Amino acid sequence: MHSTLVSRSLHLILPLTLLLIGCRSASQIMAKSDVDIIENRLPALELAVDPGPLMATEGAYPDDPEKLFDTEMKRNVLEPTDSTVFGYAKLQVTKADVTRKGKGFQAFQMLTLLTPSLLGLPLENYCTDIQAEVQIMDAQGHVLGTYTGSGKSNVRVAMYHGYSQSKAPRLADVEALRQALSQIRPQLADDADTLRQQLLHTGPVETIVGAAY
Prior knowledge:
This is DUF3313 domain-containing protein. The chain is α+β, with helices and mostly antiparallel strands.
């Protein structure tokens, strides 16, 4: 009787441990960044981020939005060698909804000692729906353009072809925000000539002046 209980416990603990640890590495997704440089880059801008409702989720780290925005703007939008700042670019997350699909299936999984997961079925899916906007402002704080984008992610918690339950929420948030920034990039590209002229016409930000946003 005792050996039977131990055996059943081991059969349950091992799959749970594997799901918590995860099979696929999350580092690749976190380090992923689209390279899609716009033709006419904007002059250097001071960057700011308001994560808004994204900070109420259980996924993204506090500095994830800032890191994503910094990488996106410096890699694809802003001139890389210009040290003079001609304005501001502000990212604001206006919506961040998280759903967990398949959570009800977990009761069945537990009853069957996670046999479906051992066969490759996902335990659940973390899905994040994000809406974000980027404002471009000149040195005096005047808004020159507002650009919006959205992103929807679907990250599986699974033993073989998914991610761990501890990493999936963060990956879902980061991927959704990355998609939103990718939607905003071509909008900035379309207005790049006009934005550039307006930013240069107003002139650089005076160092004695505080942030205009």
